[in-house]
Every structure is written in structure tokens, then in C-alpha cells.
């Protein structure tokens, strides 16, 4: 991989890791507003812990170059679920952030995916 692509993937990967770490914290210590949102969307009361664990795992995987594409892939799955949840419930303004992060995750995955010689 060229140096520019490698550096871009690493930099975006670290930013993405910070985003997922922040998201994991927010889902672990759920605000009343987010708790109401999970209930409104029909998720069980414990589901935010699953989301927090997956976001934490994505952040950890994004920190190291060999596992970065897998962390980006997991993060893309998480953001796909978030975007579909908000779009299904016609909360279009809340869909923007997950869709942007999903785009970044796909870019990181593409930049960091191992190339065969």
C-alpha cells in the first residue's frame, strides 16, 4: 500500500476508534434521553450494553494496523444498524451521523484491507 493511503487509513482509523470509544461510554452510561430512544425503537432495556460492548470492541480493533479493517467492518455493521433503526422510525435528522460514520468506516476498511502481492 502506498504511504499516503496507509497514513490516511491509520489517521481515519484512530479518529473512528475515538468515536466508537465515546459511543461505548455513552451507551454504557445511558442518558435518560437515549434510554427513552432505545425504548421508543423497541429494543429491550439491556440492549444498550450490547451496543456498548460492540463499539468498544470496534474501537480496540481499530487501534492496531493488522486488525483495523476488521474494526472498521464491525463499526460499519454497528452504524448500518443505527442508520436503519433511525430511518425505519422516520428520525431522519438522527440518521445523518450514523450514515457519515458508516461512510468513514467503509473508507477505512478499503484503505486498510490487506493487499495480495
Automatic annotation (TrEMBL):
The keyword Transmembrane helix applies. Keywords: Membrane, Transmembrane, Transmembrane helix. It is found in: Membrane. GO terms for cellular component: membrane. InterPro entries: DoxX. It is a multi-pass membrane protein. Pfam families: DoxX_2 (PF13564). The chain crosses the membrane at residues 7-26, 46-63, 70-90, 96-113. Its main location: membrane. This is DoxX family protein. It comes from Paracoccus siganidrum.
Amino acid at each position: 500500500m502506498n504511504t499516503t493511503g496507509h497514513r490516511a487509513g491509520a489517521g481515519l482509523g484512530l479518529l473512528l476508534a475515538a468515536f466508537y470509544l465515546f459511543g461505548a461510554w455513552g451507551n454504557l452510561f445511558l442518558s435518560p434521553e437515549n434510554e427513552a430512544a432505545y425504548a421508543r425503537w423497541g429494543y429491550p432495556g439491556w440492549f444498550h450494553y450490547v451496543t456498548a460492548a460492540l463499539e468498544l470492541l470496534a474501537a480496540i480493533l481499530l487501534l492496531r494496523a493488522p486488525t483495523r479493517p476488521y474494526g472498521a467492518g464491525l463499526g460499519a455493521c454497528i452504524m448500518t444498524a443505527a442508520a436503519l433503526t433511525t430511518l425505519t422510525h422516520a428520525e431522519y435528522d438522527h440518521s445523518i451521523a450514523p450514515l457519515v460514520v458508516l461512510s468513514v468506516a467503509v473508507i477505512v476498511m478499503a484503505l486498510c484491507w490487506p493487499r495480495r502481492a
